[in-house]
Amino acid sequence: MNYPNAVDVFGFNKIYSSTFGKKKVFALTDLSLSVPAGTIFGLLGPNGAGKTTLIKLLLGITFPDSGSARILNEDISNVKIKSKIGYLPENHKYPSYLTGGETLKFFGQMSGLFGSPLDKKIDELLDLMNLSKWKKSKVRTYSKGMMQRLGIAQAMINDPELIFLDEPTDGVDPIGRKEIRDVLVELKNQHKTIFLNSHILSEVELITDNVGILNKGKLLKQGTVKELTEKKEEYRLSLEGQLNNDFLIGIPGLEKNKDDYYNLKVADTPELNKVIDSIRSHNMLIREIIPVKNTLEEMFISLIQEANKEEKR
Ligand SMILES: Nc1ncnc2c1ncn2[C@@H]1O[C@H](COP(=O)(O)OP(=O)(O)O)[C@@H](O)[C@H]1O
Ligand SMILES: [Mg+2]
User: Fold this and answer.
1) CA 72 to chain centre
2) Is the dihedral of CA 92, 98, 104, 110 positive or negative?
């Protein structure tokens, strides 16, 4: 990899018009984002946010009204980059009469693979996706999770550098989701870049390096999960020793949580240290200080609610 970002989007706008052009949908508005090479990026947003539209634009399935993008250091108009990309579409279906192995063979041949290199690749991918046992079973017998893993294998058949997965865990049960997460981490270990769309937050936060939050075509935030979920000024303290409750109650921003745990809200680090000093000077011991974090889901919901409120104003 001799480029810092696998994907760079510069100011995409996409408007869909209905048949008679009367109704316009602003699917993406002035959208810019970057995905560092070799990382897992999660694009999060409710249904209709524009996630699938963004993937379609990047893949050249549809075109932006304005804006540009680069993939793997090439402008997206360069069709040659498609040979280095894998794609698992949303709600994909394979012919039910094919086996898992036959499905991959079909897609492999479309990518120009034949003979023993293809057979080897198929076995390697089925093994990676934990599907080896099911190679000769028809896909109609596959569970939703197995279908998604087969879909990821299909997206990997041409050994791409960058893989787009549109809602890879949609409709998959918790164990199936865990298996998919493990597979994605394994792909990252192989230095692949993964761009995934999801409206399911709790699991995205477990594996993504960066996330973007999309709502009604606008990117509300982009950053690491850590950056987006850290409430900078809130800490949880746990104290030991003889607790001087009268004194503690007097500290602004400090609230008893439970037992010997306290929640502390401060403006900045110097103020935090001042509180620590005064607690210590009253002969109490601090056992731990933990920054309080939002879950990604809490952050997501409040961000979307805030954006929707702004819009109504
Ligand atoms: N081909 C299309 N024609 C008209 N409107 C569309 C088309 N595709 C998507 N849209 C609309 O664009 C918006 C974004 O859709 P989409 O990108 O599928 O969102 P997501 O994948 O986040 O659910 C939605 O309002 C959707 O109805
Ligand atoms: Mg979608």
Assistant:
1) 19
2) negative
The pLDDT of residue 232 is 64
| Mean of pLDDT over the chain | 90
Question: Atom 27 (ligand 1): residue with closest C-alpha?
Answer: 48
Give the C-alpha separation, 45 to 55, whole Å. Answer: 13
Q: Work out the number of other CB atoms within 10 angstroms of the CB of residue 283.
A: 10
CATH 3.30.70 intervals, the chain: 231-293
Q: What is the dihedral of CA 16, 20, 23, 27, to 10 degrees?
A: 0
CA 90–ligand 2 middle distance (angstroms): 6
Q: Longest Cα pair distance anywhere in the chain, in angstroms? A: 80
Domain ranges in the chain with CATH number 3.40.50.300: 5-216
| Ligand 1 nearest atom to the CA of residue 217, by list position | 14
The residues lining ligand 1, judged by C-beta closer than 6 Å to any ligand atom, are 16, 25, 27, 45, 47-53
The CA-atom distances, in angstroms, between 206 and each of 58, 226, 257, 267, 297 are 25, 11, 27, 29, 12
pTM value is 0.83
pLDDT of residue 197: 94
Which CATH number is associated with domain 231-293? 3.30.70
Instruction: Kindly give the number of the ligand 1 atom that is closest to the alpha carbon of 49.
Output: 22
- At the fourth CATH level, the homologous superfamily of domain 5-216 is P-loop containing nucleotide triphosphate hydrolases (3.40.50.300)
Tell me the C-alpha distance between 84 and 51, whole Å.
Answer: 21
pLDDT digits (tens, 9 = 90+) for 81-118: 999 999 999 989 999 999 999 999 999 999 999 999 99
Which ligand has an atom closest to residue 212 CA? 1
Give residue 12's pLDDT. 98
Protein residue closest via CA to atom 6 of ligand 1: 16
**124 in Cβ contact with 131 (< 8 Å):** no
CB 180 within 8 A of CB 168: yes
Give the Cα separation of 80 and 71 in Å (integer): 11
